[in-house]
Amino acid sequence: MDKPTIILATSNGIGMGHLTRASAIASELKSFANPIIISMASGVVEVPKIAGVRFEYIPGRDRKWMGRHEWDAYLRDRLVALIDETNAKIVSFDGVVLYPGIIGIKSIRPEVNLVWVRRGFWQKTPTRYLLNLQSKMMDLIITPGDFGQSYDHGPTATRKDSVLVKPISIFNPLTTLNKNDARKVLGLDTDRPAVLVQLGIGEADSNAKMTAALTGLRSWPNLQVVLTKEPVDSNGNNLAPTGLDIKIIRYFPLANVLNAFDAAICAAGYNSVHEELAAKVPTLFIPNIRGTDNQFARALWAADNKMALTVDQSNLIQIQESAARLASESTRIELANNCEKLEGVTGAKDVANLFKDLVNKPAKNEEQISLTLFKLKLQDLFGRGWRASVYSLLQGIALVYRWFKPHKEVDINPASNINLVQIDEPDELRKLIKNGNPFEHLIIDASDSYKSRRIEIASKAYLK
Asked: 290 and 371 in one domain?
């Protein structure tokens, strides 16, 4: 009997959180299913290294290959085409906000089970008002567990519509390399201390945080500082102070070589926390305040439980001083020892078991979904208290305003032909994504009928 196909779709988040969770789940699914990952994140090119499964890159709205409305239909039609090509039974989406194109699958293939992998720790942004509406459209909602769950007081924290699983991480203590082997793979000196620094650069405040963190590390004698990209700003100015031995290493996934490091400095995203702490790496978390993820609360939990250090992300002096604290062996020992108390990051296996139960269950029928959509739209507009009602009123006014004075047309870069690409080699695919010219990426071993359907979808969406 053929294995059932399960499609794992992810949005294009700020980091790799959505994609690595999907990859961890895909690895667990392979024993009984045929998982395929489809993602708007360019990091999808690394999927073969993590999960060893087929995948497709799909352009996000920000690529400007087509208009907004065209993109919603394009996303829906691409997923439906992949469902038909593979006879998929489940489509899972890992992302904060369900795109109309994801929900739209139900109107065309109502028999397919639709799953939302919905991370917690939401900030209280306007997207929370759509929770009722979107959640009711799902056949199953899964919440990846979070070490700091008790500090989550966001809009998803008290909802009873999801199944909570253990934390999901690609870190596996059984397969990760030991300290010496990891350092040899990375080309690091085995006799000197090493610190991993993973902080974003580009924005002025991000650059300042990087400089402050690296400055703090100067007090650590004979240190090797490992970065994943050159510490330079957009003008090519070096963000690193003098006196540091900096090594630029590009290795994926880093979760497999975390034992190489005596300490780490990184943001407090879901991935980082559930990799660094699971590996018992003494870490300074510098929360990123952008996006919907409440990294501040997650990092605060780790600090309050003495499993990591954290800072006020706007206080550069505090960042420098906290980075310097990592040089203390007693501090590192205390943090690592406290991490021994953490639960295992085996949530991907929990999700795989949920999918195994779901794969043969009937999906919600289309009539139920249409009725729920209508009822919850009314509730969404009028049942949220005066603040939310005012918000809805303002939305309505904005819609009317835009009817008479629409947004300026976004510059779209349409293609003159459809470029079908059927490769899984990371470097080649990465070049195509960075190039910016529209192309259609297909899973390996795609059928001729699937190729034809994809040409139809792309032609409708962005062909001149």
From this structure: no
Query: Residue holding tokens 């639960």?
Result: 343
Last residue of a domain, one of 284, 308, 343: 343
Neighbour count for residue 292 (Cβ, 10 Å): 18
Share of the chain above pLDDT 70, in %: 86
Number of domains in the chain: 2
Q: What residue numbers bound the domain in which 417 lies?
A: 5-168+348-462
pTM over 0.85: yes
Amino acid 57: pLDDT? 95
Position 253 in a domain: yes
Residues 128 and 20 in one domain: yes
- Radius of gyration (Cα) for the chain, nearest Å? 23
337-371, pLDDT tens digit by residue? Answer: 999 999 999 999 999 999 999 998 888 765 555 55
The residues pairing with 7 across neighbouring beta strands, listed in sequence order, are: 36, 91
**Cα(167)–Cα(164) distance, rounded to whole angstroms?**
9
